[in-house]
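Notes from the 1:1 (GR / supervisor)

We went over the backlog. Supervisor wanted to see one worked example end to end before approving the batch request, so GR pasted a single chain during the call. The sequence is below; no edits were made to it. Supervisor asked that the structure be written out right there so they could see what the output format looks like.
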Amino acid sequence: MSWDVKESGLAYFYRSRRVNGKPVKVYVGRGHKGVEAEHQDQERRLKQQRDEQHWETKLSQIEQAARHTAESASLITLLHRAILINAGYYLHKGHEWRRRRAV
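Structure output shown during the call:
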């Protein structure tokens, strides 16, 4: 997306596109039509930037919520273990809770 000034001094607006993986300049116009196309491109770029910023914000909020959830799960697991140990249970072979037999 650029203005090209020719030898005659006239400015023409072009857009870049990819055709079969290669960049190609596509003529849009000059004068009012070129200015209008430039404004549309600027608006599209601004919208893209706002959308990217919006999704980056959402992603950081999700990551923060995931961290809080993991911390809460860790604390709940610790509390659960403490309650079971206090109630007389032990962890058999690292994965099964069993009640201790009275001696």
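Supervisor's comment: The two ends are 84 Å apart (CA to CA).
Batch request approved.
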